[in-house]
Amino acid sequence: MAAAEAALVRELTDPLAVVGIDEAGRGPWAGPVVAAAVILDPARPIEGLADSKKLSRKKREALFPLIMERARVGIGEASVREIDRLNILKASMLAMRRAFADLDAGGRPPELAIVDGDHTPELPVPAVPVIGGDGRSAAIGAASIIAKVTRDRIMAELDLIHPGFGWAHNAGYGTAEHLTALERQGTTGHHRTSFAPIARLIAGAPVEAEPTADEVAAE
Fold it and tell me: Which of this chain's residues are annotated to bind a divalent metal cation (predicted)?
């Protein structure tokens, strides 16, 4: 806790030294997990930054280009194949490492990473986990927006290739609509076969939609 608080203070006092990192897509049944790394520029402030889950889709889409224009941003993802091979936690950490590596080389190198959640990836700089960081740190909040919008766009593109699952609006979460389509059409190469609901479906066992999936997908 003390380390997290100190890291948040460092972000406030020296924001160019701190990179915020977050991911989107750990819970869905389909699609990649996407991470973003963001260093905010105090000379180019962005109003309205917050945890992406507390913002409407319209607000996230409006903030996305502002963050991309005014901040240093890196984006990384781990594929479904990597999720199934490594597990979702390790794949999330891999996506975060790729996001950090994707930061442009121009500007001051970051000296500290603050990461949403209770795990941190191995990085070339010290990394501090911050529980609820997407609501406590502007940089992590910005990263959550970039990761969420990027992943939503990926799922919308996949929805055009594999219609019927509702990925353009449920983002691959285990909604009733998604489950019905799975029972009717079967799985695709974008489904996470290591996830228990998909594994049960493939085995012919009964599966229930996730009770909060519609709510989470709408966030």
Answer: 22-23, 116
Regarding whether 89 and 55 lie in a shared domain, the answer is yes
d(CA 32, CA 171): 10
Q: Domain boundary at 124, 151, 178, which?
A: 151
Q: What is the pLDDT of residues 95-118, one digit of tens each?
A: 999 999 999 878 899 999 999 999
Is pTM beyond 0.90? Reply is yes
- Which of 109, 115, 79 is CA-nearest to residue 96? 115
Q: Are 135 and 50 in contact (CB under 8 A)?
A: yes
**Per-residue model confidence (pLDDT) at position 50:** 75
The residue segments making up the domain with residue 128 are 2-151
Where do we find the tokens 């609501």?
135
Number of other residues whose CB lies within 10 A of the CB of residue 199: 16
Query: Do both 75 and 131 map to the same domain?
Result: yes
Binding site as annotated, residues: 22-23, 116
Pairing of strands 33-39, 18-24: antiparallel
- Structural domain total, the chain: 2
Same domain? 94 vs 202: no
Which residues are documented as binding site for a divalent metal cation? 22-23, 116
